[in-house]
Write a structure and sequence with these properties.
The structure holds 2 protein chains of 2 kinds.
Chain A lengths: L30 E6 L7 H14 L4 E5 L15 E3 L5 H8 L7 E5 L5 H10 L2 H6 L4 E8 L3 H11 L6 E7 L11 H9 L5 E5 L4 H10 L3 H5 L13 H20 L2 H5 L7
Parallel strand pairs in A: 1-4, 1-5, 2-3, 2-4, 5-6, 6-7
Chain B lengths: L7 H15 L17 E7 L7 H14 L5 E5 L6 H4 L4 E3 L5 H11 L7 E5 L4 H11 L1 H7 L2 E8 L4 H13 L4 E7 L20 E3 L4 H7 L6 H6 L7 H32 L1
The chains are: A alpha/beta, B alpha/beta.
């Protein structure tokens, strides 16, 4: 079924507001979602934006950290919930990881080239151990580019992500073709990673993509034809329709891998 | 379903909507209540196969609205053979869905409730692409939210491709009125009564016209409204044919309107 902007009863549609519901999360373990890649330009921030819209639509309270210090990239689209941090500095690491709590999911958009370094830092501070013990729900969205270097990245990071929910995201948003991945090479790499799940993010119409970029808005706000301040906007019905259709497809992928359940995982009783 | 009578205000609104459909916009309301803004139609005249008389039906439809003092706009979606403006130079606009800007130029205009009915003459080779776009952007729901009714006039044939395309549309768009048009002017016409109209609509029948008169109406710049306006001692076959076609369109509009308000009537009685 196509989910539409005008159907408020469609709970999972790409249009609902981002009301936070702390009560709904009261009995959950803290959730941390890391979005990253060692390669640049593969769409990390775009995927993070879809995740933030998804969490908002599912009424899962959340906050975000943008590690493109000092200017930031994600904070342009979600300024109210995003803090720009330097993930290589101990002070900012404390800002993120010492404040993790069960009331809201934490989403971290890791800047290009820092995924391995960030995972290493998380191992060093004992965060990955905590994830293995189930004290924290930890998900890694590893955004893959079309080149073979992305496959090498998978091999490099696979040792660090044991105990996490590992998602390998093929991002087709710009009509990327994963041309360098012949099936045997692909299988060689993917077999090394136990439990990783693949997510495919479909292509988004170029003009629609460009318009949302120019508007500097969350996708859901653009679809609802609103300005950042909540007023009425005058975006093209066609472009909003394309974005809605695309975002619904992306969210279907997140539903397929059980992201809502993951973010709302019940606290394990000792 | 509740049997509670509809509030009097709702019935008045219903009456005013129906009346606004039955009379030219300029006439004064007879019942004394202000006219509600009527639902505007977007009519898509289409077939998955060429040479079924689609453009003639689109012309008739545009002139039906013009005859009713409704300033219709026709979108000629035939990039390889844009002939609609040959007959409707002041009312037809060429359109394309070949790129995003073309899609925006067309659909962003269709979605505006500006009081002007819209008619689309959709080329057979763009049939699937058009409905794909329509589905992706959520046109039917978006239009309805703006008081615009999307209606498909499907020029039917007893042909497997036609049948399959019809079923595909009905299945993909459960909230879309899809109306089979039985066009006896088409060489390929055979009664395609197996196509079941959706959402309370009934099939439209366009009657046979002699080859001579068919040639007359296909002359460049021929206008149905202009022909009706010319003084004539007595009605000709062509007058009757145009009248019957216009009555069929009026009947369709009323049936769609009545089906929309049928639940309200049930409550009111």
């Amino acid at each position: 079924m196509l989910k539409t902007a005008d159907n408020p009863s469609t709970k999972s549609s790409a249009t609902e507001g981002g009301a936070k519901s702390a009560a709904a999360n009261a009995a959950t373990t803290p959730t941390v979602i890391l979005v990253g890649a060692d390669k640049g330009g593969v769409g990390k921030t775009t995927i993070t934006r879809t995740l933030l819209d998804y969490l908002a639509a599912r009424r899962i309270a959340h906050r975000a950290f943008d590690t493109e210090a000092p200017k930031g990239a994600l904070n342009r689209f979600h300024p109210d919930i995003t803090e720009v941090v330097d993930v290589t500095s101990a002070a900012d690491q404390m800002k993120i990881f010492d404040t993790i709590n069960a009331a809201e999911a934490t989403v971290i958009d890791v800047r290009a080239g820092l995924l391995s370094a960030t995972l290493t830092a998380l191992r060093d501070i004992g965060f990955l151990d905590a994830a293995r013990k189930g004290e924290v729900t930890f998900a890694v969205f590893h955004i893959l580019g079309p080149s073979i270097s992305s496959l090498n990245e998978i091999a490099d990071t696979s040792g660090l992500v044991a105990g996490s929910h590992h998602f390998l995201v093929k991002n087709f948003i710009n009509n990327t073709t994963f041309f360098e991945w012949d099936p045997s090479t692909h299988n060689t790499y993917f077999k090394k990673i136990k439990g990783a799940r693949e997510i495919a993010v479909p292509r988004l119409n170029e003009l629609s993509c460009e318009q949302v970029e120019l508007a500097s808005l969350p996708f859901a706000t653009f679809i609802a034809n609103k300005t950042a301040a909540g007023g009425s906007a005058a975006y093209s019905f066609v472009l909003r329709g394309y974005v809605r259709h695309w975002l619904n497809n992306v969210w279907s992928e997140y539903d397929r891998v059980g992201l809502t359940d993951l973010a709302q995982q019940k606290q394990k009783v000792a | 379903m509740s049997n509670t009578p509809a509030p009097a205000g709702e019935v008045r609104r219903l009456l005013s909507v129906i009346e606004s459909h039955l009379r030219p916009a300029a006439a004064a309301p007879r019942h004394g209540y202000p006219l509600a803004r009527p639902h505007l139609p977007v009519m898509i005249v289409c077939s998955p196969r060429p040479r079924v008389g689609r453009t003639l039906i689109a012309r008739l439809l545009v002139e039906f609205f013009l005859a009713d003092d409704r300033r219709a706009v026709a979108y000629d979606l035939n990039p390889n053979d844009p002939v609609l403006s040959d007959w409707l130079p002041f009312h037809a606009v060429r359109a394309t869905i070949g790129d995003t800007r073309g899609v925006m130029a067309l659909f962003d205009r269709l979605i505006v409730n500006d009081g002007r009915p819209k008619v689309i003459d959709l080329a057979a080779d763009l049939f699937d692409a058009f409905f794909d776009v329509m589905l992706q952007i959520g046109l039917v729901d978006g239009a309805r939210a703006r008081g615009i009714d999307t209606v498909v006039l499907f020029v039917a044939e007893d042909h497997p491709r036609s049948t399959a395309a019809y079923r595909r549309i009905v299945e993909r768009f459960d909230q879309l009125a899809v109306v089979p048009v039985h066009n006896k002017l088409s060489e390929s016409f055979k009664a395609a009564d197996f196509l079941r109209p959706s959402l309370g609509a009934t099939a439209i029948h366009i009657d046979y016209l002699s080859p001579f008169l068919h040639g007359v109406v296909n002359r460049p710049r021929f206008s149905f409204v202009g022909f009706l306006a010319k003084p004539s001692a007595r009605p000709t076959m062509l007058h009757d044919w145009i009248d019957q076609s216009f009555v069929a369109f009026r009947d369709l509009e009323l049936r769609l309107l009545m089906s929309e308000f049928a639940p309200l009537f049930r409550h009111a009685v």
